[in-house]
Design a protein that fits this description.
The structure holds two protein chains of two kinds. Chain A is an all-beta fold. Helices cover 0% and strands 52% of the residues of chain A. Chain B has no helices and eleven strands. In chain B, the strands form two sheets. In chain B, strands 2, 4, 5, 9, 10 and 11 form a six-stranded mixed beta sheet that branches. In chain B, strand 6 and strand 7 form a beta hairpin.
Amino acid sequence: KAGVTQTPRYLIKTRGQQVTLSCSPISGHRSVSWYQQTPGQGLQFLFEYFSETQRNKGNFPGRFSGRQFSNSRSEMNVSTLELGDSALYLCASSLMADSGANVLTFGAGSRLTVL
Amino acid sequence: GQQVMQIPQYQHVQEGEDFTTYCNSSTTLSNIQWYKQRPGGHPVFLIQLVKSGEVKKQKRLTFQFGEAKKNSSLHITATQTTDVGTYFCAGRAGGTSYGKLTFGQGTILTVHP
């Protein structure tokens, strides 16, 4: 079955602009998480959505926002871009079963460069 | 908030040598997961440990979960060049399987042939 699809894969923006990244989870997966990856900071948790509701949120400024649609697809938006927002943004989906832990399946990521 | 520390940050080994990375949480974990990210790739799930003191093996990889469920380790026996990549541990706070998954900083493994 198809994996997690992220679009666009690469994009270049300038400071002050905004960007929207898209994530289509694995069919049947209802939970989507977003992570920011930079060379020195590892994987930083942004937010997690389940059934269109934000279930968890990381420690990022309000410029970072997200949402999930009824078909489980998710988008994240970063407004007023700063140079430090340059990173690989990874989306991961999981089943979010009622019992047991949830394993993440990551997409290939969207690499954002802010000039 | 919950912190997950991983050491070492970098490890360079000769092919055939063993490798170990350690993961420590500031809080008790309900479970811990390990992921591998190849250079230029994305993290891929390796394994999940749930029980206190649990040990699991995958060929040359051995994963352990501490008795107190606050630490974990990944040991690779006789490394190969295909083991190159960044290994991440990720833990969920105890008491729930729905808490956010907090990743360690990762250990970058380089294997010299």
